[in-house]
Structure formats: structure tokens, C-alpha cells
Amino acid sequence: MTQIKKILVSQPQPLNARNPYQEMEDLFGVHFDFKPLIRIEGLSAKEFRAQHINPLDYTAVLLNSRLSIDHFFRICEEMRIQVPETMHYYCISEMVANYLQKYIQYRKRKVFFTEHNKFSELLPAMNRRPNEKYIMVMSDVHNDETIRMFAEHKIEIKPAIMYRTMINEWPKEEVFDYDMVVLFTPSGVSALKTNFPNLTSENIKIACIGTNTANALKEIGLEADIVPTPEYPSITAAIKAYLEQHCV
User: Fold this and answer.
1) What is the CATH number of domain 41-165?
2) Hey, which of 20, 45, 72, 201 has its CA 20 to 30 A from 232?
3) What number of other Cβ atoms are within 10 A of residue 222's Cβ?
4) Checking DSSP bridges between strand 38-42 and strand 157-167, what pairing results, if any?
5) How far apart are CA 106 and CA 126, in angstroms?
6) How far apart are CA 36 and CA 125, in angstroms?
7) DSSP 8-state symbol, 3
8) How much is the pLDDT for 248?
9) What's the whole-model pTM score?
10) For residue 21, is it left (φ>0), alpha (ψ between -120 and 50) or beta?
11) Nearest-5° angle of CA 182, CA 140, CA 130?
12) Rounded Cα distance, 111 and 119, in Å
């Protein structure tokens, strides 16, 4: 039986002391360490201006995370741009859409979101607004698949890089002795490969979320052992199910 004792989660530690990771520690006697393999740095207003993009030239913004919301409004503030009340927001999920309340007065007629985290679900709403002009907030490391999908439907999306993804170098004095690593983004996969180029699927189990993350693993010769499923829709539920099979 596979022995899983120490698990690295490539995200900051949850603020709530009682969380699914803590519950799994209590249930299975495993230990979770929370150490982000990547960090995010916002572009300065000067760097953003080099892209020759003026947010006021657009009537709508596509947002794929709460992070993208923060950087959109940060850039606008640094450029002394007052985001108009008429701006429309197209979000990857309801959770992301709700986060907009930090910056705007939320109105359903100007905020749209998907039910299943697929931007293609926004096509009907976008087709009802043929004169809309779209900007999409992105990292310097991104997949253009969404841009291509909209282009196939005759919808032009202007990518706007507002933040960059940086790899955190693993401390040389710190031993990497984990039995499992949990990854959330393709950038996290790249960071894992950069820090540990000799890592193989034979000496570590990998849990990941998202098709792009799983594909990024395959590209570097690794396989995802644990992924969310309809039965276990969250990454923590999927990890718990795995531990129940292998650690009890």
C-alpha cells in the first residue's frame, strides 16, 4: 500500500484553522505544508502603457480570477482612469463575479458569469451585444485557447497583460521529501520542473486541478494521480478519497 505522509500544497495556507486539509491531517495522520511554487507581480502602469492599450477604449472586460479583478482596478487606478459605470464584466464563475463587489456596485445587467467555469457559456450574452468591445486581463504566462475560441465565433478579444508569474526558487538547504504535491496551474507545473528536473511519477504522487494543468504535467513527462471528478468535484475531496483508499 502506498505510504503518504507528507504533502506539499503549492498555495498559501488557508486562513481558517478548520479547513479540509486540517481535517485530513486529523483523519489520516498526514501532514500538509503550504508553500507557493510561484508568485505574482503586477506590471507597473508604465509597463502596461507599453502595450498601447487604453481600458477606456473598451466596453467590457473578461475576468478569469479574483486576481485579474485586483490587477484590472489597480492598473486603472495607477493610470488615473475612472472605470465607467457602463463597463460590462464577463466572469469565469459566480465566485469571481461576486468578488467584483469589492470595487463596483454590483448590478446583474452589467455582470455576467458562467455556471461551469467555461467562457464559451458566455457566448449567448455576448452575441446579444454585437457592438461590445472586449479586453481580457491576463498574466504574461497564459494560454490563448480562450482567445481563439472567441475568434472562431467572430468575437474579438484584446489580451491585456497586467501581471506576471514568477517562479519561487526552492531553498537549497531545504530537503524536498514529499510523498505528494498538489498543483493548481500550468505555471505551478513549470515551477516544479524548474526546481526539481529529475522528479518522476515513480517517486511522487501528484494531485492537480484543471485540464490545462494536467496537460502541462504530460508535457514534462509526469502524470496526475488525483484529479477532481463528478463524484469528488473539489481537489480536497479528490485527495481525501485517495487517502481513504491508500492510507487507512
Assistant:
1) 3.40.50.10090
2) 201
3) 21
4) antiparallel
5) 19
6) 36
7) -
8) 61
9) 0.76
10) alpha
11) 105
12) 14
